[in-house]
Automatic annotation (TrEMBL):
Signal peptide feature range: none
Family: Belongs to the binding-protein-dependent transport system permease family. CysTW subfamily.
Membrane topology listed for this record: Multi-pass membrane protein
Organism whose genome encodes this protein: Allobacillus halotolerans
Subcellular localization: Cell membrane
Superkingdom of origin: Bacteria
InterPro entries: MetI-like, Phosphate_PstA
Keyword Transmembrane assigned: yes
Name of protein: Phosphate transport system permease protein PstA
ABC transmembrane type-1 domain residues: 75-283
Keywords noted in UniProt: Cell membrane, Membrane, Transmembrane, Transmembrane helix, Transport
Residue ranges of the TM segments: 21-43, 71-104, 116-136, 142-163, 221-241, 261-286
CDD domains per the UniProt record, alphabetical: TM_PBP2
Length: 294
């Protein structure tokens, strides 16, 4: 019979405690480093651009004169763009997730589809821009319109929405569905009244993160040929447009020639962050409402 060496046990316990303390401070440092970088970016952006934000800047047209430039066209373009993205992404993403998770038979074809969807989530955004240019701009002849840009960004975030929606549906307790079937409900009645309401808060969480990525994408819009010129305000889905990320991108490039454009870019970043905050707040409110309801 082998006795426990108390001294050896004590050494191991002390080692684990020291390792725990070291790792705690390592993880704290990693968190603080990200927060510090974020704080520096926000402070620099706000200090550089806040003084340029006024009513004329928000409601004005684009101009070659930095003192007269406005971003209402870019704000409206971003708004119309997000309407297209939200409509197509939520319908197609949730529909595909419901079919793959609750209707499709498990097998090789299902596994192949799942693998491809997961791979598409990691494809660079510029590849989706090339796809949108080929299909929506040239083949369907939409041109550089709101609809072409919205459909391209929808394709970009669609795999993320599908995967997050599938995970949300998979997390619904199986006993709830079995109880619904036991009461005589059909499959669609169970999905509509049990699975979707239960999974909806998690689905909206994934959708919020995906939309946050879409609203800040620039590379696909550059490939589509979205301009940042003096164009009229967009009033529909088939109008030409510019968006805040595009305007920020071009003003950042022009800042090498005219210093004031850097201030305009910083001010536009603040407006974009405010739009993102409002969009996320609305989505979080809807998510919490459904979460308390069900």
């Amino acid at each position: 019979m082998q006795y426990i060496d108390r001294l050896q046990v004590r050494k191991r316990i002390n080692f684990r405690l020291r390792l725990n303390s070291i790792l705690k401070y390592v993880f704290l440092g990693a968190t603080l480093s990200g927060l510090v970088v974020l704080a520096i970016l926000l402070i620099r952006t706000v200090s550089q651009g806040f003084a340029w934000i006024d009513w004329n800047f928000i409601t004005g047209h684009l101009s070659m004169d930095p003192e007269k430039a406005g971003i209402m066209g870019a704000i409206l373009g971003t708004f119309w763009l997000m309407l297209v993205v939200i409509f197509f992404t939520l319908i197609l993403g949730m529909g595909a997730a419901i079919y793959l998770e609750l209707y499709a038979k498990k097998g090789r074809v299902h596994s192949l589809i799942q693998t491809n969807i997961a791979n598409l989530a990691g494809v660079p955004s510029i590849v989706y821009g090339i796809l949108g240019l080929t299909v929506f701009v040239r083949l369907m002849d939409f041109g550089s319109t709101v609809l072409a840009g919205g459909l391209t960004l929808s394709l970009l975030i669609l795999p993320i929405v599908i995967v997050s929606s599938q995970e949300a549906l998979r997390a619904v307790p199986q006993t709830l569905g079995e109880a619904s079937y036991g009461l005589g409900a059909s499959k669609w009645q169970t999905i509509r009244n049990i699975d979707l309401p239960t999974a909806l808060p998690s689905i909206l969480t994934g959708s919020i993160l995906a939309l946050s990525r879409a609203i800040g994408e620039t590379a696909p819009l550059v490939v589509l040929g979205i301009p940042a010129l003096l164009i009229p305000f967009p009033g529909g889905f088939m109008d030409r447009f510019t968006a805040l990320p595009m305007q920020i991108y071009y003003w950042t490039l022009d800042a090498a020639l005219v210093e004031e454009y850097a201030n305009l870019a910083a001010a536009s970043i603040i407006i974009l962050l405010l739009m993102l905050f409002i969009l996320n707040s609305i989505a979080i409110y809807i998510r919490n409402k459904f979460q308390h309801r069900f």
